[in-house]
Specification:
The complex is a heterodimer of chains A (335) and B (278). Chain A is mostly helical. Chain A folds into two domains: 20-74, no CATH class; 94-333, MetI-like (MetI-like fold). Chain A has helices at residues 2-29, 34-39, 46-56, 62-74, 88-123, 128-142, 145-159, 182-189, 194-229, 232-239, 244-281, 287-296, 300-328, 330-333. Chain A is globular and about 85 Å long. Helix content of chain B is 37%, strand content 24%. Chain B is built from eleven helices and eleven strands. Chain B has helices at residues 46-54, 80-86, 98-101, 108-119, 124-137, 143-147, 156-168, 186-203, 214-220, 238-243, 248-255; strands spanning 4-15, 18-30, 35-39, 61-64, 67-70, 73-74, 91-94, 174-178, 206-211, 223-228, 231-237. In chain B, helix 4 (108-119) crosses helix 5 and helix 4 runs parallel beside helix 7. The chains are: A mainly alpha (335), B alpha/beta (278). The interface between A and B is medium-sized, with 20 and 33 residues.
């Protein structure tokens, strides 16, 4: 097991280097001069422009810039944001809890509901429950996320007034940042209504972000369950006189979870992409919104640093999923 | 009174081509402590009939019978909960594919203990002790180690022994063995068969052995039922059946035994209606 983890950790290095190259090249392929964008409408004298290019190292050949960047990374230096003049890592860490909180709630909702819906559809195969669940899953999977978000905002925020339109917390509440996770901080603050406000702010973004993963997980669970339910060991389980709940919930689901865990892991990467859209729509101060803002400002350091850090998170999640896979599948564990 | 009594059993499945009868008008009676062999070619409805007894057929199957009684109790009139109380305790079943019959995600020990937990009031440590005792009884070496093994870590023969241990956990009165040796190699086949017979003799349970191997029948059975296309062709005690088969299909089956090969070729069990109106 230790060898397996070590091997997986070693594999992260070439993947990480590949991502640095992609992130580095990708941002430089965007049209627009970052120095001119910084200057805004006032413009710059050619001398000042050249001086700034030199200051940021943009006058160097591309390979040199890349080598400098990698050298910086190994020192833990992800660069300094052009626009805020603060280290990229510091900015990332300030926003990451917001995204993590949202992504965690979304994947939790998607997994719990998705697995439940998939199991129900498989057990009642061909019934109206199956048709309805899979119909909803297909709609959920096909729906553009921004449109779905707008529909929800119109229904629940504008018309019914049940949930706030945007942000993470009501303006009436102020409490110090302890963990960066609003649910925990609001709870710790002990201020009446603060926790409820944090929950209410989370509901719509969570639903929006969870929709596509939920649909995918439900469909995957259904097909995995259908396969497992036809296995001989299911007949053995029933021949023991076990209750249907135990036969389905333990014997079938445990086996069906093997592909589902992989799917959930893959959905985390999809979630990071979805977070960028969802955060923009709900003005959620996480890394998605930060990245979008930085792209429009051509903040090279932030975009490449942010991309890299997001990629790191996805890689770590994938590693966790691989380890979890070993937990749910004994055939992998002992190899 | 027979332990298991089935009269006029029919099992049908709804298919796109209409209703298909896998078993039709079958009468079976199994006495306590008896070994009954059910023989017939693939698709003759041997397994389906016994799956109906165990209540393991899918929802798509329609089961009807004039009587289906176990120890005098009407199986068809029971609620699912009452049926589940019998399954695994009074009647148990083992299947053709031993490796596929065990859940790959759970240890062998867990799978034996689960049956004990369901049907007995034994404590956790007593259940473990009983499971180890069962593993020893079915001839699994190093039972302590195998208790914690997963099915993929064991051979096909060991998996079938583990399946037998699960089936025997609550000392059932009836064990249905659905082609228990078909997927195993020849030397292991003999061992498993001997094991089943020993357990049957020791415990006094009834054993229904579904097979298409006439050699197995000759070695084991007290009584034989020959099935073809879902119907019973002949029923006789084993000795009579081998010495004086009355039905032409039984004669055809027996003449297809390997020792009857002529010039390296076996006579075929020619396709015929054998008196069956389909």
């Amino acid at each position: 097991m230790l060898l397996f983890i070590l091997r997986r950790l070693l594999l992260l290095i070439p993947t990480f280097l590949g991502i640095t190259l992609l992130a580095f090249l990708f941002i430089r392929m965007l049209p627009g001069d970052p120095v001119l964008l910084l200057a805004g409408e006032r413009g710059l004298s050619p001398e000042r422009h050249a001086a700034l290019l030199a200051q940021f190292g943009f006058d160097q050949p591309m390979w040199r810039q890349y080598v400098d960047y990698i050298a910086g990374l190994f020192r833990g230096d992800f660069g300094i944001s052009f626009s805020t003049k603060r280290p990229v890592l510091e900015e990332f860490m300030a926003r990451f809890p917001a995204t993590l909180e949202l992504a965690f709630c979304a994947i939790l909702l998607a997994s719990v509901l998705g697995i439940a819906a998939g199991v129900l559809a498989a057990v009642r195969r061909g019934s109206w429950i199956d048709q309805l669940t899979m119909g909803i899953a297909l709609v959920g999977y096909s729906m553009p996320i921004f449109w779905w978000a707008l529909l929800l905002i119109i229904a629940f925020s504008s018309t019914l007034g049940w949930t706030p339109v945007s942000g993470r917390m009501g303006l009436a509440y102020y409490f110090p940042d302890v963990t960066g996770f609003m649910l925990i901080d609001s709870w710790l603050s002990g201020r009446p209504g603060a926790f409820k406000s944090a929950v209410m702010h989370l509901i719509l973004p969570t639903i929006v972000l969870a929709t596509i993963p939920l649909a995918v997980i439900a469909r995957q669970t259904r097909s995995a369950m259908l396969e497992v339910l036809g296995e001989v060991y299911m007949m053995t389980a029933r021949s023991k006189g076990l209750s249907p709940l135990r036969v389905v919930g333990l014997h079938a689901l445990r086996n069906a979870m093997i592909p589902v865990v992989t799917t959930i892991g893959l959905q985390v990467s999809v979630l990071m992409g979805g977070a960028i859209l969802t955060e923009s729509i709900f003005s959620w101060p996480g890394i998605g919104k930060w990245m979008i803002d930085s792209i429009s400002r051509r903040d090279y350091q932030v975009v490449q640093g942010g991309l890299l850090l997001i990629a790191l998170v996805v890689m770590l999640v994938n590693l966790t999923v691989d380890l979890l896979y070993g937990l749910v599948n004994p055939r992998v564990r002992r190899q | 009174m027979a332990l298991l009594e089935i009269r006029n059993l029919s099992v049908s499945f709804e298919t796109t081509a209409g209703r298909f009868f896998a078993v039709q008008g079958l009468d079976v009676s199994v006495d306590e402590g008896e070994v009954l062999a059910v023989v017939g070619e693939s698709g003759s409805g041997k397994s389906v009939a016994m799956l109906a007894v165990m209540g393991l057929l899918p929802d798509t199957a329609t089961v009807s019978a004039d009587a289906m009684r176990f120890e005098g109790r009407d199986l068809l009139g029971m609620t699912p909960r009452q049926r589940r109380a019998l399954s695994g305790r009074d009647m148990a079943m083992i299947f053709q594919e031993p490796v596929a019959s065990l859940n790959p995600c759970f240890t062998v020990g867990f799978q034996i203990v689960e049956t004990l937990k369901r049907h007995t009031k034994l404590s956790g440590s007593a259940r473990r002790a009983r499971a180890l005792e069962l593993l020893t009884a079915v001839g699994i070496p190093e039972p302590e180690r195998r208790y914690a093994s997963y099915p993929h870590q064991m051979s096909g023969g060991q998996c079938q022994r583990a399946m037998i241990a699960i089936a025997m956990a609550c000392s059932p009165k009836l064990l249905i063995a659905d082609e228990p040796t078909t997927a195993l190699d020849v030397t292991i086949q003999k061992q498993i068969l001997d094991l089943l017979l020993n357990l049957q003799t020791e415990s006094g349970m009834a054993l229904v052995l579904i097979t298409h191997d006439m050699g197995v029948v000759a070695e084991t059975a007290d009584r034989v039922i020959v099935q073809y296309q879902g119907r019973k062709m002949e029923e006789a005690d084993a000795l009579t059946l081998f010495e004086a088969p009355r039905h032409p299909y039984t004669r055809a089956l027996l003449s297809a035994l390997p020792e009857n090969a002529v010039g390296g070729r076996l006579p075929t069990v020619a396709v015929g209606d054998w008196g069956v109106r389909t």
